[in-house]
Amino acid sequence: MPTLVLLALVGFAAQLVDGSLGMAYGVTSTTLLLAIGTNPAAASATVHLAEIGTTLASGASHWRFGNVDWKVVARVGFPGAVGAFLGATFLSWLSTEAAGPIMSVVLLALGIYILSRFTFRGVSTKHLGKPLRRRFLTPLGLVAGFVDATGGGGWGPVGTPALLSSGRMEPRKVVGSIDTSEFLVAVAASLGFLVGLGAAGIDFAMAGAILVGGVLAAPIAAYIVRIVPPRLLGSAVGGLIVFTNVRTLLRSDYIEASSSVLVTAYILIAIIWAAAIAYSVRAWRAETREQQLIDAVHAEHAEHALGSAPNGDPEPEQDQLVGDRT
């Protein structure tokens, strides 16, 4: 029972992150399942089964808040489902000894990408409003779906930054569309694992606990995405994923690092992690100040234009001139 309660809390926290950042639900949940000794394929299968419910709840919540572009959902989601099914059957075919390190390496790479991507680049909207082409979304969906199933997560870490970097969608719509399309990926991956592992290979109790926590967090996350800076959240979550998977790799049978190496690695990662968050905070504050200045200039120009309009109120100088003439 304590384990199931812990998994429910993890599902809640992971969905808060995923629903507001557009990534890291599967990566975070799978990382924890691996840390407690779950079979890699079973861990990914359990998380994807839970994601069927959490992504459905998350998608409905994002739709309610107007965060979903349904064209993008269809164009990236269906190829993603194909990639996820192929990835699930591939992971089921691998032995546990081979799959464990492979999954940890994939998760570590995704964590490094999330950490560096949001710390140093933030979010771009330079081409906001321009349509996303199918020839870009289809291969993106295939690759992201395959990585998601084989790594126990990856749909968001691959898909969300790719759409954000295009600068053609509002960040909140990127997050909402990726989260909604992930429902198709979760269903396809679950079918692939059922084919490869059978129902006996999936822990339904763990999946249920993660599902309950995620469903409870979904509407909160859909609201948070409108108010929490993605840059800060990305740096925090990326560092957590890196820390956890480095620990898993160093303690694996392939490496078996000594305690001194473990402590040194933990301290180094903690320093980098803290520096990344501090850098993100400073960058976010600078961006906020710059945007406030831009908004103030636009507001001043709007007031000036209104005052100079033929049907608008005369400006103070004009009032004084009229008074002098009379």
From TrEMBL:
Membrane-spanning ranges: 72-94, 101-120, 183-200, 206-225, 232-250, 262-281
Name of the protein this chain belongs to: Probable membrane transporter protein
Keywords recorded for this protein, A-Z: Cell membrane, Membrane, Transmembrane, Transmembrane helix
Stretches for region Disordered: 305-326
Protein's membrane topology: Multi-pass membrane protein
PANTHER family for the chain: MEMBRANE TRANSPORTER PROTEIN MJ0441-RELATED, MEMBRANE TRANSPORTER PROTEIN YTNM-RELATED
Protein location: Cell membrane; Membrane
Cellular component aspect of the GO annotation: plasma membrane
InterPro entries for this protein: TM_pro_TauE-like, TSUP/Inactive_protease-like
Species the sequence originates in: Kineosphaera limosa NBRC 100340
Family of the protein in this entry: Belongs to the 4-toluene sulfonate uptake permease (TSUP) (TC 2.A.102) family.
